[in-house]
Amino acid sequence: MNTAAAWILALGLALPAAAAQSADSGGRFRVAGFGRVAWQPDLYELAFAAVGDGADAKIARERFEPALAAVQRVVDAHAGALSERSQDAPRLHSRGSEQAPAWRYSSRFVVRVRGDAELARMQQELAEAGVAEFELRPLSQRLPEYTEQAQRLALQDAQRRARATAQELGWRLRGARAVKFLDERPWWLPQAPTARQYGARAYDYAAEAPAQSGEVTAQAEVEFEYSP
Question: Would the pTM of this model clear 0.85, i.e. be above it?
């Protein structure tokens, strides 16, 4: 391995096969950059269900209908604080055995609630209406903005790494020629730790500091041009 390649690997960079030019004539090299932005939730995805249980389907249905109506009243009362809402069609499930038959009607709801206080009130009212279980996922209405911030930080990090490499090897950095974001996904999904998704291409960044549920991360691969 030549000296240039050894320095690049030591700094956590990767030299692409397509740019394998000699240091005498200059060339291009690629750098991985990483960005991380912490955010506070102001939007919550809340999932729950209205259910009715019975020893036969008829009893389950009779218990389910008032339970569903009570849950729908709560959801309607909080409509102004919801950015999204959905409801599955009622379903009948067999939950017992031949010796002890049991049936359940259920309808699942998913809503997105704005604000902590409104979320707490809605959960309390749903619990009073008979909802026993909730699934909660914190979100933010500004996640697209946070994602852009993380990407900008990833580009800045890549530039710092490129400058360090050029300085160590005595190269003159000409500038970036191509940029690729390696961790692109819909903004409403939490970003998984990069190393888990890209393995060695993450250069142990996320393995050392995994992304938390209240963070957005971005990984960029930037190709720089240099001359001796």
Answer: no
